[in-house]
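Justification of resources, computational component.

The compute hours requested in this renewal are based largely on the per-chain cost of generating structure records like the one below. Each record pairs the submitted sequence with a full structure-token output. That output is archived, and it is also reused by downstream analysis tasks.
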Amino acid sequence: MQNLLIIRQALYRFFSQLFLYPDKENLNDMCVAANELLNFHESWDEQPYAETLSVLLEQLSEVNIEDRKWIEDEYNRLFLIKPLVSPYETTYLKSMGKSNGMLAATISGIYAQAGLTISPSFNDLPYHVAIELEFMSFLCEKELQALSEGDEEAVSDMQQEQYEFMGKHLAKWYPHFAGKALSEAKKNLYKNVVVASTAFLRKELELLGIRP
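The structure output for this chain reads:
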């Protein structure tokens, strides 16, 4: 159970980083993380998402950080400058009658209740895909801490929080976001990011007992 939690926490954070702007520092962090995950492949290579994750990690391990303009251009085209694919939950849940302000307040409240605030350096919205994935990583990290301390009640609480956040948020909109991104991506890198993250989250839904 502990090993599974470690890889879950790491992969949520890894995919979160991949949906942030790929400047030199962030891209370097992603490549380092990719190599670390490759070195510990035995912790995930029997998971159903192993094949797609392996393809992505191998590609990132070969990225030349100094030659990153094509990655920045693709990110801008897809997610940032007149984006073809919105990275925000509100875009996909408008049909449910939730306003941007209501959703922002709800999600910010969830983060605050968990003792988190969004870094001022992240000049974006709390329902950005990267933030929601990072929050799931945080919850896995808290569960891991509770497990190491033998606090069964806290373990159960963290599992419930993962279930609720995934079920009420990511599970409802991420598949639509991923489908749009996959259809619009021109470069294999972001196609591989979407395919691997979708396979990972599909396994997460199964693990958390959430129907797709």
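The chain has a mean pLDDT of 93. The first helix runs from residue 2 to 18.
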